[in-house]
Amino acid sequence: MKKILTLAFFLLAALSATAQENNESLVSGCKIWTTRSISTTPPAYGGSTDYCETKLEGTIVVDGISFAQVHERTRFAEEEQFGQWESRNKYVGQKGDKVYLYFKSSNTMIPVMDFSLKAGDTFRQYDDSSQRNQTEYVVTAVSDTILHNTSAPIARKCIHLRSTHYEDVWIEGVGSVTTGIYGTYGVSFHGSRTSLMKCVDGNALLYLFEDFSTPVHAVEQSRPSTGIFYDLQGRRISGQPKAGIYIRDGRKVVVR
To answer: Phi, psi at residue 42, to the nearest 5°?
Structure first.
């Protein structure tokens, strides 16, 4: 009996640790990404600014991975409002730590991020769906970062990347700070500079451009404890929480 109880204890501990390490999926919820592209090609388009909103809808399963289809709408420099939503021949999926783009017409899947990467690792992102051109990144840092301009500030895993021509940061549950969900595939168009301006999940604000427009990205270790619990949707918990996974002081905790 003692051996059974000991085994059960270790199994529970392992499951709790696994739950704490699971990253929030990029394709979970009802997220909308807003990106800004500034043309850098003179003279006709020098400095013109366009915006694009992206959302994911619908589900298909490819090789055991659930993908959602990309829908976009744009607002060009001379326009005041966004156009109509249009579906694209691109799907985004995530299985475990790995994020993929899938192109249904060519039945092509390309990796765009791996949240299990560690500092010093290399990662190749493809510049187009043909997979002929690729960019090799080096992971310069991996950190837990609190994004202060959010509805419920929590510590999110961040992968800092650098290549010969590009720098990028991928944030757990948010995506790339340059292209949102695309990685290098979205920055392979020469003559423009793209930035993620905002990411929302329903009414919850997950990311603002200002979060990474300053050099301070580290978790504030000196922040005083409030003891307040939030659920994984950012809603405040009143009273003692039931058993489960919650956010407290910006970090995921397990309540048994």
So the answer is: -80, 165
